[in-house]
Amino acid sequence: MAVQKKRKTRSRRDMRRSQIKTKKPEISSDQNTGENHLRHNISPQGFYRGKQVILVKDKTSSEDEEE
After folding, report:
1. Which residues neighbour 49 within 8 Å (Cβ) at sequence distance 6 or greater?
2. Domain-by-domain residue ranges, the chain?
3. Which pTM was predicted?
């Protein structure tokens, strides 16, 4: 098993960790609806890469039908 000869200083450890940070999520807009969504995810209207993959029901139209 490999064992280091010298202990890493706090400075060296923190310099290495400075490269590890979170990034902003990539956001794209859908070609058909113009809605913003996360990359590689479907838009709120059910579109992915310009094609409708899921039919999304409107909340307002379903409430009108019940009454």
Report:
1. 31
2. 27-56
3. 0.47
